[in-house]
Amino acid sequence: MKTTKKAKAVGLMFLIIIVSVASSLITSYFTNKNKNNNFNQNLQVPAAYAKFAEVSSAGETDFTVAAELCVHSVVHVKTKSKAQLSFSPDPFFEFFFGTPRFYQEPPVIEGSGSGVIITNDGYIVTNNHVIDRANQIEVTLNDKRTFDAKVVGTDPNTDLALIKIDADNLPIIPFGNSDSLKVGEWVLAIGNPFNLTSTVTAGIVSAKARNINIINSKMRIESFIQTDAAVNPGNSGGALINTKGQLVGINTAIASQTGSYAGYAFAIPTSIVKKVVSDLRQYGVVQRAVLGIEITDITAQLAKEKDLKTLEGAYVANVNPGSAAEKAGIKEGDVIINVNGVNVKSVAELQEQIGRYKPGDKISVTVMRKNEKLKFNNVELKNAQGISSIVSADKINVEEILGATFKEVPASLKKKLNINYGMQVVSLTKGKLLQNGVKAGYIILKINNQTIRKIEDIQSALTVAMNSEEKVLFLSGIYPDGKITYYAINLEND
To answer: In the prediction, which pLDDT does 35 show?
Structure first.
């Protein structure tokens, strides 16, 4: 009996020791976790925000302070737009009366999404698809005040848009450093799903630099933050924040077969958002730099076919003549592994890095060529038109607005059709031409009675039309089968 009591006493003492040690280890873990959870010290973040990532008495991460402050900076965006209706082209009517002839008033389509206030005086970032084609935008604040908003600029290539309301002293969410996010880190999603205002959900970062091919643009940049925070229709354009109350992403898409949340959501990182927003405010258009290459992710099969020694990086499938890459010495078959000291493991990561720079910026690019590592310094970036200088809003981007690429008409086709000039539509993406029924192969001969011989002629005609009161393009042209066709393109968002 005495032996049994003694054994129990020893056992109890041993248990106490174990609990004490475990408690110390847990305390040490959370203490170190909080110490290492700081963002880039160069960011101008109020001191109060440093205590957001705290642990409650229950041993769980506390989101209450971050949620309370940030929820007031996320707005409800409501839009109205007119449905696009087809019409029978009547060039005589259109050229004399100036507008296409619709046979009935198009119905009004209402939409809903979210936005994030980023300046005290009313600049709001949201998704382009939230306000795309809207002719009326209404913003409702968390305090139920409503404002009409105007579009400052859009970037379909990243699915971002900047809008503005006439208000002052608005609450904002400070930008955080999305580069510092780690897989497994807690984040909050704030938005207005299903018209339920000021909704907050929590999850973790599931992955980074995801390319899901959701943006319909030739020059798309996709490097999404993947989370398991619940995101539903209406969350688009809302905030993804860390536990410090800092904006680290703009919620954009979900992976779902039903249209509702099914486990994964995707947000545009602030590393991209900050660049796009800054350009739209300063220039009216995004200053997008490119290397001038065609790239693809490396698979095991590609590595075997091309005898590549790495599975990480972006494989250079083609180098465009006269591009920044060609002038630097980058060749087809190279594998890009580093940009300005930052390792890139995929196409998405490369696009994200290049997307941070403007035309004219000089960067370093490191590639693997066979078994050799080569570094190219002072690579001067250009835009898609091969220009190294800044392009302001008065220099219109033809491809982005019209949603098309063009080429000069081949001599044989000119002879067949008995024409001496024109620019031919090569491909179409989401844009004004596709919306109005223009098909690939169409040859534009005149725009607003201006003869079109080269891409600069299209740009000139578009610039004049955008700055005119009517904002309409009248296209005269012909298809390769000889069918003469006219189109009236309304450049406004209605």
So the answer is: 36
